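Final paragraph of the annual report: two paired records, presented back to back.
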Amino acid sequence: SLADGKPVSLSPLESQPHSPRYTASSQRERESLEVRMREVEEENRVLRKQLSLAQSRSPSHHRGNHSKTYSMEEGTGDSESLRAGIVAGNSSECGQQPAVEKCETIHVAIVCAGYNASRDVVTLVKSVLFHRRNPLHFHLIADSIAKQILATLFQTWMVPAVRIDFYDADELKSEVSWIPNKHYSGIYGLMKLVLTKTLPSNLERVIVLDTDITFATDIAELWAVFHKFKGQQVLGLVENQSDWYLGNLWKNHRPWPALGRGYNTGVILLLLDKLRKMKWEQMWRLTAERELMSMLSTSLADQDIFNAVIKQNPFLVYQLPCFWNVQLSDHTRSEQCYRDVSDLKVIHWNSPKKLRVKNKHVEFFRNLYLTFLEYDGNLLRRELFGCPSEADINSENLQKQLSELDEDDLCYEFRRERFTVHRTHLYFLHYEYEPASDNTDVTLVAQLSMDRLQMLEAICKHWEGPISLALYLSDAEAQQFLRYAQGSEVLMSRHNVGYHIVYKEGQFYPVNLLRNVAMKHISTPYMFLSDIDFLPMYGLYEYLRKSVIQLDLANTKKALIVPAFETLRYRLSFPKSKAELLSMLDMGTLFTFRYHVWTKGHAPTNFAKWRTATTPYRVEWEADFEPYVVVRKDCPEYDRRFVGFGWNKVAHIMELDAQEYEFTVLPNAYMIHMPHAPSFDITKFRSNKQYRICLKTLKEEFQQDMSRHYGFAALKYLTAENNS
């Protein structure tokens, strides 16, 4: 307390002036202590002034050794002055430098490619958003995969005062493909070298981050460091915290040239305008060409080339305090960067082992990382008060739609769900699909929540074709799913399954939104609209592909019906043929689906006819019909007004009929519903009268919409409903 100039608490003496212990001797001791305290405060003030003067006069300060930089910039003076609204500095003139303006936009560039890196980016962005108080502009250099994933994610995330721009990483490959690189990041690990060319020419400065970074402070503090650059300093970097560039890790270890320990490029401050004037592009290319003649390839991607340039031109670097890039690699010296949790600002998981890296405090770092990994991203949709946001058409349309709803309507929550924008992360796991040459491929489409995860392995064993799944999960559940999938040999052996996470929001299960998400992201011309509780018969995938050709689905509006059955047994010897299934039906081991509670749902399939059918046969639509069908990918979407339990499939089949789809039952296809506990939504439907009233209201409104849209032909739906 004496050292940082704050008053020392004298409460034990002050609070009891009349106690027996409060003697003349105590009074003298107190006065003596106060005098000494004032002396220490004055000595500290003079010492701080001398330090500031010494720092401002020393031309080598920014390039001084690492420990000096840390001791000058990590202490309370730095953080206190930042909080006081000025940029903490290395000279007395910094008191006049403005801090980051309240609404100043902070620019961040990230190179991201592939499915796994897209997941990492989300955690990094969460940590930045959690602490930020300024508008942010992310510049994402992404391949086509990452762009599809992240564009959808940010579009559905709708975070205020955040702008996203994408730059095609694939177009930049030719700029760096001539450089052999052994690093696991591949060609994308070299793309930070070309940011001066890639980013807009009017962008003056940018913070560049690796995807394996976690922020523990407001990124504005790092942005403020740009004010400290002097002379020809154009790169802000933290010293490398391993011995890699010292060349003593193993016998005959020969790293690229570097200044001392070299610098780590996981966090970079780039003064783009000055770099362009210095002809950075020419500078790094000439250096790389020269060094590659002897080194043959890079080992640490762009970092090797940055360091080789700095070795030749040390004046380019402003050395950041090491807490701006605490590197958790093997053999790291990062523990010297912090004495307390409050010292940490940026954590860098720069080991291929990531969370399994060896470090004395790795549990603490891992918990900090997991906090953001599992943090509810919806909570980060916070307004920046006082900062005008750019007009967002999607957000404005949403607000307009919501404002037109009557909040006093007893069905308001149902109606509101139709317009809720759910944050969506497409292709959460690696996905590969090779299109079939005969153009007959079929994707199984389904949706699920956490309580149905156990069905995934069984479905994968029954269906070898592509699958598109929408999973309704919280952020924490998404990580549980990831661990489950990565621990499953069955799921990890399948790359043709697209897992699309739709994050939880609101009180209803948005079943039809989930179906639409899964339908929208299929790669095949046809899809089998199933549910997660059904196991398709063995061989159904190949049978459907043949049926697609046989029934000319490409040129006709048909919906091919796969008859549905159910078992009440958790352990079932799955029938391997239609004959075996019929035998089980006769024995009472299997039943036609929902025959005992909702006969109308599948009665039009005509199971009696199916028993002896050997060729496909046509059936007519009837009220409440909800079969499972194979259709072309251009079929209409499901109606989002139906959430939870009730009428979600019925409405879709009705719309197919209105669009004159022909319903054709496949004679040698079947699927079996496996037993499970009742869902939360069916429980609400059964127990909540208002739920049933609202469902009836939505149903009537849907039928009226059908009449308006399809005219006279749709009157039969009203008539059929009245008769049923």
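The closing record of the year follows.
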Amino acid sequence: QESVSGESEEESNGVNLMQFSDEILLHILSYVPCTDLVLNVRKTCRKLATLCLDKSLTHTVLLQKDYKVNKDKVKQLMRDIGKEIYQLNMAGCYWLPSSTIDHITRCKNLVKLNLSGCHVTSLHLSKMLSTLQHLRSLAIDVNPGFDASHLSSECKATLSRVSELKQTLYTPSYGVVPCCTSLEKLLLYFEILDHSREGFMLSGQLMVGESNVPHYQNLRVFYARLAPGYVNQEVVRLYLAVLSDRTPENLHAFLISAPGSFAETGATKNLLDSMARNVRLDALQLPKAWINGSGLLQHLKFNNPFYFSFSRCTLSGGHLIQRIINGGKDLKSLTSLNLSGCVHCLAPESLFRKAEDNIDSSILENLVVSCCNLRHLNLSAAHHHSSESIGNHLCQLLSRLKHLLSLALPVCSITDVAASVEKPPTASNLVPQTFGRKVRIGVQTYPKNLADQANQKIESSVFWALMGSLRFLETLEIIGSSFSSAMPRNEPAIRNSLPPCVRAQSVGDSEVAAISQLTYLQSLTLAQLPNILTGSGLISIGLQCQHLRTLSLANLGMMGKMVYMSALMDMLKHCKCLRDLRLEQPYFCAGAQFFQALSHCSSLQRLCIVSRSGTLQSDAVMSFMANCLEVIMCHMFMGESLTVCKNLQQSIVRSFQADRPALNVVIFPLLHEDLTEVIRDVPMRHLDEITLFKSRVAEEPPNLWW
């Protein structure tokens, strides 16, 4: 009756959804999660019952961020449309039990399957793959206890036909790689810890029975990303040993992302020499020790490169132009470039240069002209200081890259040179960035009207002009060149932070307000902006950037006080699409007013707060969790006692876990000695995407995995 009355009301207003063409309705339905389509929407009427089962909607099923899906829904979904599914993505569904995987056997026609982050034993994997004879693309985790001897002959037959494999390793193992004899794309993520939970040192040697040799003869893409740790380096060398014996002729992408020092060995040198002789690459990333001081780059040959990463290398701008850009030749094919941490990449030479010296604008101009189709550019973690020459500021040159979708810059690179040279340091600039005795300073006055604020000075600044020219930018990171997050990876929390660059001292509210011009902005990261006095620019972003989904703020303004809390709360009231919020600020007070403002973010799913000496109100947190029904991740690392943290964590889990199967709660003292043990239990999806701070622009090649 309600349905009929609703239809009659629509007809009286001249609008009836069911009168649209099938094509339009299918397009609308494509935005609805598949579980809702099959289990709910198709039960409303006959027409939708037919459309919801259209091949265009059931061919590819994406469950990777459907946090409301549970084992019963997956079971029903597979029963209803299993035979129609050709691509299934369940990446990061950590809350589903391993028995859920058994239902995938109904998907007889599966071609692509992503189970990264799911609980899958070797026995469950064997049973499932034995029935998926058409499978060509697979992503899985290899956890402690994985035993390749449990894989049946039918399972190995399926693996022999797989051409794309993504494997995340939590234990030293080849996983299923030796069974995949037709591999063309291999992605390896090494997340092996150096120590067991009991404190024993782990070995990089593979387990007994793991001596089978991988088959790389058809390999086109090799990618390896290493978490910090010695064991990860030892295991990846075993994977590379086969490549050094015989380099695949069709290899066109070779990428190894390794933090810290990863020394070159005789085997890796032979591999690189073989690559220089036999292959032409389209994508390249190497550990810094393999590039620094070697003539490797001038010998490697490239075809139509689309991705380069020289993160943390000492590559000079002269070498960049001569060996990579070939003296300024056409590189229109390059769409993604990562120069994060390359402190000398915009200077002609690095031998006698200080990291804080001005850049050579001609090198950047050459780069911009040659790589005019760049969509992703990372220049963070370095001091890129522009000279006073008119028209040669870094922001002015980057404004020519009209196709940019994501950009990462150091704070000191966006400052207006003339303004910073002419103005003497203000009182706020002279305040030391420490946690000692508070110093009273004058507070700059700001116009009440945001429009007046925009006209104050920023419209004439180079950064304002840059933001105005990059109207389609979706991801922006402005990170202090000396910023280090207090959140650890595999080590204790960082207790001391380096002061910001001198050039960055003038960057504050007006520069933040300039970002509000980015109408299509979806992800924003701001870290170590020392001159934030009121945070008024954040309100402009909240009002204008209505597509903002991810917001990360860290160490803004004076370190001893949360000076932008009022503006942040005003901003959050306008962020209706915000899904991920990460805040890292010493002395942060997570109280009732903050959580009341945050409750306006009706789409919020994940919250992470990192605050040394920070405080929280348990009642306010509980009220927030009750009001925001979409929140499935709550991570807080504060200055509260272990008892307070544990009691709050248990209360949240006890109150909301039943209705939110994906709920993941970690509340723990930031400086506690057991923090690293707590971190290791966080699902990799959350740890990698929000909990740990890092620059994500051009971190990987675009479309590396579906």
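Residues 207-211, 421-448 have pLDDT under 50 and may be disordered. This concludes the annual technical report; the extension proposal builds directly on these records.
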